[in-house]
Amino acid sequence: MERIYTMKLSSVYPLLVRKAERKGRTEAEVQELIFWLMGYDADSLKKVLEEDPDYQTFFHEAPAWNPASENITGKICGVRIETISDPLMRKIRCLDKLVDELAAGRPVAKILNRS
Fold first, then answer.
1. Please, what is the angle between helix 42-51 and helix 9-21, to 10°?
2. 114 vs 81: CA distance, rounded Å
3. How far is CA 48 from the centre of its chain?
4. Neighbours of 54 (CB within 10 A)
5. Are 5 and 56 in contact (CB under 8 A)?
6. How does pLDDT run across 69-115, given as a tens digit for each residue?
């Protein structure tokens, strides 16, 4: 099992936010990506952050995975997302990719326009 799966959400979520904030982006923008990708809303994300599950549970219990996430491609950590066979790892890398694009300066609207 990958180590990331067992890490607490409280350990990973701040890293995603910091990555974006270092490049002048906001936590609200990171949350918008999570809402789009995983189906959380502000209340459900706040609740899950308070419950602090492991990262695997955060993904498995996502309210509604966006079917347009299949259109997320590119490299993350040197690996092409579309070649990742483990469904959970692919989902994790999709979120990483969206946050990377945000940190690179792409507008949220363009990042989410993956229909």
1. 130
2. 15
3. 14
4. 16
5. yes
6. 999 999 998 899 999 999 999 999 999 999 999 999 999 999 998 64
